[in-house]
Every structure is written in structure tokens, then in C-alpha cells.
Amino acid sequence: MNIAYLDPPYSRYFTQLCRKLNTSTGGRTVALLSCPAYRLYARGDRSIVWQPGVSSVRHVLPEPFTRAAWASHDERFAEAFSHAVEWFKERFREEATDVCLLFSDARPFSTAAAIAAAHVGVVCLYFERGAFRLRTASLSTQGLNARFDLRLAARAGGMLGLPDAAIPARRREEPWLRARFALFMLLNELSCRWTPQRRPMQHKTYHFFNYVRIALRQFQSEHPELLPAHGELAVDEVKGTVLLPLQLQTDSQFVMYSPFRHNQELLDFIVPRVCKSLPGARVLVKKHPMDVRHYQLPAGAQFVGGNLSNYYHDAALMVCLNSGAGFEAAVQGKPVLCFADSFYTGHLPVVRTSKANFVADLLAAARRGDDPVSGAQLRAAVLRSYQAPGDVWAYTDDDLDASTGIVLQHIAAARALNGGASDSASA
Which one of 18, 151, 319, 340 counts the least CB within 10 Å of its CB? Predict the structure, then answer.
């Protein structure tokens, strides 16, 4: 099976996984990179770096990627994107590629590869950090997060994935992960300065001080004892409350799918309606650990710190956009209302709501109460259809061995859903 992989997940995960796959199936691996800086993560593999150019063929950016932060109506972006699509077509044909591994499906380089892959019959398998951070990786041929449909995955035969009882223990991060990323940022910036035409195909601008600030926030979230006390609520204070985790406004899931322009608008919509519909209820608001913005809380809401799981048992329900915290609450059986799709929506105890239906859905969820059985079923379905052992930043050799089999399950399922396309893998 000939494998191509795109810009790696700032780790050696793809390199190591592809070696396992080559051992299992034969074939060869090539890294297709948007920038020379990614060679830092592809050492040991043959790599080809995209060189910007002009294409006579124009490709339209698919919905909903037109809302992505990196999307632009600028002619330079249209040229770079279209050229990248044609470049991928040529590379896939030249390399006789069977499967392409991508980290994230919400990047311009990934989107260009997906369009090219559909033209030449290459299976795309997308990876992301897992639903259980530092324990699992998410993977799917459908796409990730809002683009993954658990019901469609359930119809694919042969998917065993991870058994429900086998969530791995927390893994240690890959050695030198952060130091290597700092070097990558420097190399990426130098490359983009040398060849400015590369910038349109980069999904973000890597501002060093922003990452210093994020690192400090992450350190604080991992060491809550160093933070001022938020006033942990007693059990009787939590009873009947509604949990509201905020997401980063710059995250692709918010930018591309939120019906709200920003978190303040979300707060101003949800809190008054909860307080009016559920008399006596309060809304406990938890900021994302890396969110440095300040928000005005409407009457009836208060900020809480620590881990939201401390409140799952006694709260009435959770409301969110499509946060991972929603999944954590749902697998505990807690009613969850989501304003956007995610990998766990479409399965009880989660309800996909809207601005128009929010109050009715809120009242129904409050009446329905907890459903631990459905929560356990949701957890098992996500593990089976959407997870592999070992986070892409934190994994063991045994994780990669197990993930090799799971990757092959996803590829076989995708081919079956696409009409039983013949397996062109090398033996």
C-alpha cells in the first residue's frame, strides 16, 4: 500500500505509523509538505515540498471552508489553492498513492489534497488529537469533528476500533515536542519570508508570543493550585445549574460552524433564556483554558474554574457549541444541547439545537434528565468508530501497532462505502 502523508501533526507520529503500515502491507511512503520546515518531522522519509506556481485550472473552495479564518477572496489565495490541487493530482499519480494521511481537515493544504484525491481515487484518512486527550487519537475517512457522522460510521462494516473497556492510560508526550515546535516556527517563518507565495497555504500565522501566552495558560490549567481560588461550589449550589463551556473564538469549529459571531453573543443569547425558562437556575460558565478574552456575564451566570467534570453529576444539563466538554458530559449520561455538529451529535443524550428551537429543547432536556445507558452507548460507539490508542503527541510503540490495524479497518470501510473499490495495495 503506497502512502502519502501531508504536513505532520508537529510530531513524529506519521513517520512512525507509516513505517508500521509499510511493514504490514508493503509499499512505500512519501511526505508531501507545504513548507520545508515540516521536514523537521519527516526525517527518514522521502519528502516532496510544494513549490508555488500558477495553474490554468481554477478550483472552488468547498463549503463550509469558505468561512475558515485562512480562506480569502484574494487572487493570490485562489492561485495558490488551485495550483496545490493540480500539484497533488500529479504527485498522487506519480507515486501511485493508495492512501493519504492528513492531520486536520480544516487546513487549506488538506482541503486541496482532498479535492485532488477525489479526482484520482485516493482514500484520505484524517487524524486529530483524540476525544480522550493524551490517551487517544481521532481518525476518520469522513472528516473530523463537525464533518464526522457517527451514524454513517455505524453503518460501515468491519469497524472494531477500540473496545469500550480499553481506553489507554494517559501517555507521556513525545520527547522534545515543544522545543521542536519552537524550531519549526522559526524555520516556517524564514521559509515564508523567502517565498511569500507559501503563506496563503499556511492555515495560521505562527506568532511566537501568542504561543508563549498559550503555554502559560496551559501550564496554569495543569497546575490549578497556582491560580487564585475560584470558590469551588458546594453540591447544593450546583443542583439544577446549567453548564456552559466556552470555546476559542479563533478555533476552526467556532469560526466555521457557530451561529454566534463570538462568545459574548453566545452568552447574551443563552443565559437570559435559561434563567427565564428554568426559574431559579444559574448558568456556570467555564472559559477555555487558553482564552485570554474578558466577557460581561449576564445576570444569572457566574464563572467557575477547575475541571467541569466536578459539576457533571449535580448539574441539570450542558449547553455548548460543539465542545469536547459536551462529549465528556454526554458519556456520563448528562443531557447536552449543541448548536453545531460534532463527532458525538446525532446520538442520545445529545440534542442538536438551534436558536429557534433552543427554549423548547432546553425544557425537554431538563424534563428528560440523565441517561447513563445512552451515555455508555455513545462512548462505545465513538471508541469503535473514531478513536485509536495513543494521542498524536503522546504515544507508545504498542499504540502504533494497534493503530495500524485500526487504520486498515477505516480504509477497508471507506472502500466498501464507496462501492467496493478494488484494493490496489501492494502485497
Answer: 151
